[in-house]
Amino acid sequence: MKSNQTPAAAGPQVKGELSPEKRKLLLRDLVRDRWMYLMLLPGVLYFIVFKYVPMYGVTMAFQDYKPHTGFFGSPWVGFKHFERFFSEPQFWMLFRNTIILALYNLIFFFPLPIILALMLNELRRERFKRFVQTLIYIPHFVSWVVVVGIFYILFTTENGLLNEIIYQITGEKIAFLLEKDWFRTMIVSQSIWKEVGWGTVIFLAALAGVDLQQYEAARIDGAGRWSQLWHITLPAIRSTIIILLILRLGNFLDSGFEQIFLMITPTNREVSEVFDTYVYTKGMTQAQYSYSAAVGLFKSFVGLILVLGSNWMAKRFGEEGVY
Amino acid sequence: MRQDQTWGNRLFDIINHSVLFIVAIVCVLPFVYVLAVSFASPAEVAKGGLILWPKEWSLVSYQYIFSSDTLPRSLLVSIYITVVGTLINLAFTSLMAYPLSKPHLRGRNPILLGVLITMLFSGGMIPTYFVVNGLNLTNTLWSLMIPNAISAFNLIVLKNFFQQIPDGLEDSAKIDGCNDLGVLIRIVLPLSLPAMATFGLFYAVAHWNTFFNAILYINDNEKWPIQVLLREIVILAQSRVGDASFDEMDVQPLTIRMAVIVFATVPILLVYPFLQKHFAKGVMLGSVKG
Question: What is the ipTM score, two decimals?
Fold first, then answer.
């Protein structure tokens, strides 16, 4: 805080009204920082228009929204759209698909960057370490269309390279891209291939902050590589792991919308349709705006509860949490 | 520094090195394959098998995709939104981050809170679509740049970065008659080049990879960025990119697809090595400081 706001100058506090001295100070600060406020203006406008107006716009989930009457002029219908969604037989299919994909990503994907970072951390040769790091970051920078496209080319039954190899060995081809049994495996493998390297960045940063003297001391006490890992390295990155876990739980339900959108086919819809793709289909292609906004709102609501809940849990277990 | 070279340690090192080497190769091998096939002759591709270095080089697939203006046009669209969009991102983000980095600024905390809330909760696809539509941005390239002008996360990290710059430098510039905007442009931004390079790269990658927003907001296929075209050709297996369809020309659909992937990928991979040393620093900064 600024030094000019001493308690003496503040005077008695009247709620909602400022004492003359305070008002003068406020006015002086506003004038002094006028350039600052001018610089804030575009950003604040951006957040209001593109983040807060849509947040108000979710009220359309409780309306029968008509594009020409807008968020303010459409008739209110209460929970009609939610009731329809919950009684829809597809509700449980969507719920199951969304949760299973999210769980798969959590179980199979989440630990891998940690393991990879620990392995990289054990490398003593700087050049080899940098070589590996440079290469494993690359897939992160390409789009989901490219990733899915490359998977299509490699796994297709029509001369896909991997299917050719499988054919040479077993004499059979596997319809990785069409069969619904392979859908989740494909999704998780793509996620791992694209993001596992990039996921190490943050753990490597945390590992770089570990005090080297601790290792020295442990070695003198006769600790081997494994016990050093267990007693020094892992505890040192524990809080990073937990924060990332909370963040991931926060986005638990958005398991890669673009990716799923690209991988969805009529044959695998039973396992691939998730809340997000359903919102898109109902809203944008079938013009059921209010209904799909209600589905979207339900999803955001569950997501919000997950972040707040996991953060609360982390705090109960004596960790820092995100907020 | 070296540990006792016991058998266990040596074995661990060998396995560790091998596994990491394989992981690294698996990450880049598909790109090498795509690149190689795109330059291989149709005859060689027709034989099948793994091609990592074409025996007979051929530019026929590139000639084909440039035989009509579909691909060149979407490349231009992507280049345009990447360059202009990134400039908008950097300008908007740094303009907002700088005032927020000053603890004495009145109203700073409510604004920061407002930004944080947007990271937790959003209106979602449908309401956002109607806002963009209501502003008459749909079917314009602005719809791919303006609705994502600021990433809340990047804004917070940049704000923290600005906070670390010593006040003395800025004060002296002010004594010399600079206003706050001048201080940002002449003092703060030049000191923040690594951070700006990092965020510039992240924003540029996001724009180059823009796909779903284009599906959502752009109907006119003359305004499609390269990623949307790529989906048409590779995933939906549309067989027309060039003037002739695949059968009429002596080309392999596979090599055409590869060539389009190359264009959707290579520009990003070309920038990456130049910025890598910056972003390592920039990302660490963001992750450690939160």
Answer: 0.90
